[in-house]
Design goal:
474 residues; 8-stranded parallel β-sheet; 3-stranded mixed β-sheet; Rossmann fold; alpha/beta; 3-methyladenine DNA Glycosylase II, Chain A, domain 3; binds iron/sulfur cluster; TIM Barrel
Length: 474
Amino acid sequence: MKLSSPMEIWKYLPGTNCGECGEKTCLAFASLLIERKKRLEDCSPLFEPKYAEKGKELAELLAPAVREVEIGISERARKIGGEDVMHRHERTFFNRTALAYDVWDTMNEEELRERVKEITNWKKFYVGEFLKVDAVAVRSVSGDAKTFAECVKRVAEETDFPLVLCSFDAKVMEEGLKEVSDRNPLIYAADKNNWKEVLRIAKRYKVPVTLFSPDLDMLISLAVTFSSAGVEDIVLDPGTYPTGEGLEETFSRFVRIRRAGIVDGNKGIAYPLIAVPMSAWMVHGDGAKSEDALEASYWEAIIADLFIIKYADIMILHSIEPHSLIPERTLVANIYTDPRRPVSVEPGLREVGNPTEKSPLFVTTNFALTYYTVESDITSNKIDSYLMVVDSEGIGVESAVAGGQLNAENFKDALESFNVASKVKHKTMVIPGLAARLSGETEDVTGWTVLVGPRDSGRIPGWMEKNWPPETVS
Ligand code: SF4
C-alpha cells in the first residue's frame, strides 16, 4: 500500500459524502479503507465513468505490497498474504498465518474421517476467543489418482474448512481437484518438472496454486510464467529443510523473498509464502515409536514457530497433539494482533460464582490477557467473589502502574462508577501484588482498606488461606 493516511486516500474519492458506502463522509470511509474494514467496491460512485480513472489509480495505490490470496469459500474462506510491512510494529500484519493440518490418502476411511473431525473441531479458549485451526491439507501418498480423489471426497464430506491438495503428479492432482473445484482449494505444487500441466489445471479450474523451488531464480521464473499466463493467485514454497544449514538457508530464503516483495517492491516475487514444518517428520524417526513421534512433533513445532514469526502466510503441519498445536496457534494469535491497539476488555464489575456482600473484591486491569488469566484462576478455584476491572487503557498491571494508567484515582472512579459499595459491605479491596506501591495512596483517596494480593493470580487460593477474611470483613 503506497498511501499512509486517510487524507491521502480521500483525495481520490468522489468527495460528495453521499453515504452510499454506509459512512457519513468520504473521509470516514477513507479511514476504514486504510484499515481494510471497507473495500473499494463499497463506494459505488467511484466506478462511474467520471471517477473511474481515479478509482483505478486508487486501487493500485491501495494494493498491498504482498498479494492477498484467498483459499476456501464463504465464511470459512481464509485470506493469506496481503502484508505491507516487514515487522508488525511498523504498522500491523493483517492476515494471520493459516495452519493446515494433514491427512493422507493411505489412511483407512474410519481413521481419515476421525482425524478430519478432530482437526475441524479443535478449539482452545484464549484471551476472549476460541482459537481454531484453518485448513486441511490432503496429501497423495499412494500416487494413485482414484485413491486420492476418493480421499479428497471423504475429507470434503467431513469438513467445510479450506483445503490444500498436495501432489506433484498433475494427473493425481486433477482427479482430486475435480471433487472440490467449487471450494477454491489451494493446489500444491507446481515445480520445474510439472509446471505446464499444473498451469493448465490452475487456469482450467481457476484455483490458487503453489509454486515450489528452493532455487529462487527458478521460483521467480515460475511466478512470472504463471502470472503472465493470467494465474495471479500464487503461493510460493522455497522449500522447508528441517535441520542444520538447510534450515538456516530456508530461513534466509523466506526473509529474502519477503524483503524483495516489501522493501524492494519486486512484484515478481511478492506473493504469500508457504512453509512445511512437517518436513521435521522426515528426519526425526518414523513416528511408529512414541519417542520418535515426540521428538518429531517437538521439532515440527519449533520450525513452525520460527516461520510463524518470519514469514509464512500458510503452513502444512502434521502433529495435532496439544503440545504442538497449542503453542503454534497461540503464537499466531499473539503475532497477529494489532500492536496499535492493546487487546482489552470492557471495564466493569464482574461476579465470579455466587458472591455475597462479604465476598472478596479483587481488582485487575482491562488488559485482556491479565483479565482472562485472573478470571480463570478465580473461577477454576471456585472462589465466589467480585472482580473489579479497572480501565488501564488496555495495559497490563506492571506497565500501567509505571505509566500512570493505573492509579489511586482510577480505583476511586471504578468504585464509584460501578457502584461497588452496593454489592460489598466490607470496604476492602484486594489489589494485584504488582500494584503494591499504590496501596497507601489508594487507601487515602478511596477510604477503602487495601490488601495487597499475590503477584501471580495463580497464587490467590494460597493467599486466601492466609489473608481472607481479614478483620475488616469478619
Ligand atoms: S460512497 Fe463514496 S462518494 Fe459516497 S460517501 Fe462513501 S466514499 Fe464518499
